[in-house]
Design goal:
Largest sheet: 6 strands, mixed
Helix content: 25-40%
Order of helices and strands: HEHEEEHEHEHHHEEEEHHEEEEEEE
Number of domains: 2
Distance between the termini: 50 Å
Structural class: alpha+beta
Number of helices: 9
CATH topology of the largest domain: Creatine Amidinohydrolase
CATH superfamily of the largest domain: Creatinase/methionine aminopeptidase superfamily
């Protein structure tokens, strides 16, 4: 990562600098943003300060003087704790307001990586520390055009597998052959491999009350058979097997039978309409180049669900950032689990996935939304009706 890009972002943010700190590779963001090689395994604290103007400055321990040698800048070394504190103050000379991987009240845990003691130490040097969350988005959450295209290609394949999975259940039910949550899950995993897709875990295949657990995953010991009259939820995410590929992440639901119970139909419609209202809010804002934050998108979906009388059953955020990891480091659509006031920036993607989880069944509907330069779009197919399996 060129420090000139970091310095340009610091100037835009009206910050005097960005202080990176680590001990035992605790801050993976620092290593990725700065491009520090994987073979650097520090056992002592290091600091790297990128000022808004001027040459970067390093502070490393005397027994690990080469820890930051791949980075540009003036090197200082320390040995004792007193030496460290004195030279840290020197490292930050001339700065009054700097960014670190910190989030006030741990509002954004993805970025809240610097320990409280180090914050005390840095503040003791006479500087104000602010969150690097918005800066992190610029360098971690933005996609290249190639990544966007990889997402679209992955989406077509994942949607294909999703159709096949629901089709498998329908075939088995139609011939009175047994089929389980775990069997469908393994079918999806095999199809991913055959199509050149990879995933970190999952997918979620859940019937009835299992679908009311948003993170339920079947396994060989815990898996229900799927029967006529069951509600079936499938949540699946995958990316292409290629460098820097990004994820596509969806959730669809269906009913095993011809006549959908009215309560299920009502819950699905509320979830679907909440999803559509949130995505349309994003599309309108992006088309006007208007600034909006993650919490505002959550407010749209959650407000609609509350107005329909189902607020108590929606107990997770509306969506999460998507990147090379399925849960990325950009703005989340969240005003429940946290108040994510980061602006949603162009070149980023996130899920919109409201869900209602009643004791007897749960329904979630998930799409991915990409925000580009003056536009936003849902990147794949959208579920309009419960699938009749």
């Amino acid at each position: 990562m060129g420090t000139d890009r970091i310095q340009a972002a610091l100037a835009d943010a009206k910050l005097d600098g960005w202080l990176f700190f680590d001990h035992h590779r605790r801050d993976s963001l620092a290593y990725r943003i700065l491009g520090i090689p994987d073979n650097v395994e520090p056992t002592r604290r290091w600091y790297y300060f990128v000022p808004a103007v001027g040459e970067p400055r390093k502070l490393v321990h005397r027994i690990e003087t080469g820890a930051l040698d791949t980075l540009p800048g003036e090197k200082n070394v320390y040995a004792s704790w007193a030496d460290q504190q004195e030279k840290l103050a020197f490292l930050l000379r001339g700065a009054s307001r700097i960014a670190m991987q910190y989030s006030r009240n741990c509002a954004i845990p993805y970025v809240s990586l610097v320990d409280a003691g180090t914050l005390e130490l840095v503040r003791g040097c006479g500087v104000e520390v602010v969150s690097s969350a918005d800066l992190v988005q610029l360098f971690e959450a933005r996609w290249s055009e190639d990544q966007f295209q990889s997402h679209l290609r992955a989406g077509k394949l994942v949607d294909q597998v999703r159709r096949s999975a629901f089709g498998l259940v329908g075939e088995r039910l139609g011939t009175n052959e047994p089929v389980s949550e775990y069997e469908v899950q393994q079918f999806i995993r095999r199809r991913f491999l055959e199509l050149g897709l990879t995933t970190n875990h999952g997918p979620i295949v859940a019937v009835n009350e299992h679908a009311s657990d948003p993170h339920y995953e079947p396994n060989q010991e815990r898996s229900s058979q799927i029967h006529s009259g069951d509600l079936l939820l499938i949540d699946m995410w995958a990316k292409l097997m290629e460098p820097d590929a990004v994820y596509y992440d969806i959730t669809w639901t269906g009913y095993c039978g011809e006549t959908i119970p009215s309560k299920m139909q009502k819950v699905f419609q509320v979830v679907r309409d909440a999803r559509k209202q949130a995505s349309q809010f994003v599309i309108r804002k992006a088309s006007k180049r208007a600034q909006f934050a993650g919490y505002e998108v959550d407010d749209v979906a959650r407000g609609f669900i509350k107005d329909q009388g189902f607020g108590e059953y929606f107990f997770h955020r509306t969506g999460h950032s998507i990147g090379t990891e399925v849960h990325g480091t950009g703005a989340n659509m969240d005003n429940l689990e946290s108040h994510d006031d980061r602006s949603v920036i162009s070149g980023t993607c996130f899920s919109i996935e409201p869900g209602l989880y009643l004791p007897e069944f749960g329904i979630r509907s998930e799409v991915n939304v990409y925000v580009g330069d003056g536009f936003a779009q849902v990147t794949g197919e959208e579920q309009e009706q419960l699938i009749r399996i």
